Amino acid sequence: MLPLTTREFMKGQPRLVTTPHRRIPLDIPAGVTPTEFFNSPCNLRHLARENGLLRTPEEFLLYRKAIGHSNLFDTSIIHDTSQRILDPLGRPVRRDQLNKRENLVFSRMTQVAFRYMHEKYPDPERHLLFCGEASLDATWPLGKPGVPSIRMIHNHFMVFDNAELEAAPLAASDDPNLTDSGHNGIFLQFLNDVYLRFFEVLDLKILSPLAPDQARIKTTGYPQGLPSWEVRGGIDALDSGRFWHEYDMVLAGFLDFYRAFFTLVASDNTQVSIEATYPDQVEDVLLFNSEFHKAARIMRLQVLEDPKFANEIRWRPAYKQLLYRDDMGRLIVTISQNSVGNAITELLGIVVKRVTDEEAYGRAEPHLVGQLLELRNRLVQYNFGEPISTPSWPAGVFIPTS
Questions:
Q1: Which entry of 133, 191, 359, 360 is 20 to 30 Å from 383 by CA?
Q2: Is residue 262 assigned to a domain?
């Protein structure tokens, strides 16, 4: 067998990407941690005023990421209830907590944004595009380092250049963001088979199950060990309500699995949650599976012995659900637990180092913002809401910051 070339050896490993940003023109008050400040109604109001693009009647906010992951394309949609619900722990953090109208609007906005990215970056060999929805666990302390900065349901849309990813240095294999602080290792080592088998109950017509190794992108080799589904029909399937129904089914199944496992870890309780969507499957596949109990025991013992590990557990369901386009042009859905500091990008093996660099960001900003305004205009045309005027786009045209 011929030895691997350096280029071949570099394939399929997580990458470290450095992304410049402009300094946020807002000082964190003394005595307040960054996470506490970022979650404050004051900061979220400032976010909308400085970077807001569009707001809907249902309180969804499309905005430019001031400190983003990619300066090629990067935006987010958040359910911004911060001015109405002042308690950060009282705001919706999961899609299943939205009402029917909110869920429909959130899904439609995701559909429009994803299709826009697909049109602007049509070549899967040149660009990796994805959106990732994350929930946050309301049981975590607000000041805990690594807790995501905005504790509301949001979807993050990004595009990366595949050539730049391949040229990027390798990320550390033990980076905590890639390892889910040890939680994912337990899932991969003990729960992979039962995890995948549990999802077989879903009555899916558009989402087609993939073996975990068939869903990986070639540059990073991620995601790893997660349940994944190919979207039959590709981008056009996103125009179907059935796709979004199945997208919700994937989340419902994940929540059932998560609740059953962490209830077992927390209290050794085998009672099926009254919130379970698939209670028979929880009992049949999970609670009668010895490996499931073995993994729970291992984590339970570690929680009892290791206070640092115990403090990193998210006892309430917290997830990351991704829709991405792989190297072959397939659209793929995957879902994972949400752990310490875990960003959406790390689920695909991309660790982002964000640095303050006004000049570098200034070079990328006109093209980035131009696309965001195009997307904003499309959403307005589709009757989603009203555009927001900011210092950088006072009349819908980008004006560089002096």
A1: 133
A2: no
